[in-house]
Design brief:
With 101 residues, the protein is mainly alpha-helical. The chain is 72% helix and 0% strand. The protein has two domains: 30 residues; 64 residues, DnaJ domain (Helix Hairpins), CATH 1.10.287.110.
Length: 101
């Protein structure tokens, strides 16, 4: 009977330890940064498609990884600019299509 009690105590302590480690790891998670495609491209929300394309072309020429081979962040910045371009065009086209209905 005492053996069963000690097994239960060891299990409770073990699971408490696992829970404490998990809670500690969760507290170290950084919150997600907001993704504002218009801010990344440097344009106002609701800009026209030609302004979005112009801003994307300007930034892609500056931030392209081939133009910045010494910058280790050039690839991630270029990917972020490309995603912002795609998302902002999708937003504008969706608004345009919804207004026609």
């Amino acid at each position: 009977m005492r053996k069963g009690f000690y097994v239960k105590v060891v299990l409770v302590v073990f699971f408490w330890f696992v829970w404490a480690l998990t809670a500690d790891q969760i507290s170290k998670i950084k919150p997600l940064k907001s993704f504002d495609p218009f801010q990344i491209l440097g344009i106002e929300p609701g800009a026209e498609i030609k302004d979005i394309k112009k801003a994307y072309r300007r930034l892609s020429l500056i931030k392209h990884p081939d133009k910045n081979p010494d910058d280790p962040l050039a690839v991630t910045e270029f990917i972020q600019i490309t995603k912002a371009y795609t998302v902002s065009l999708n937003i504008i086209v969706t608004i345009w299509l919804d207004s026609d209905r």
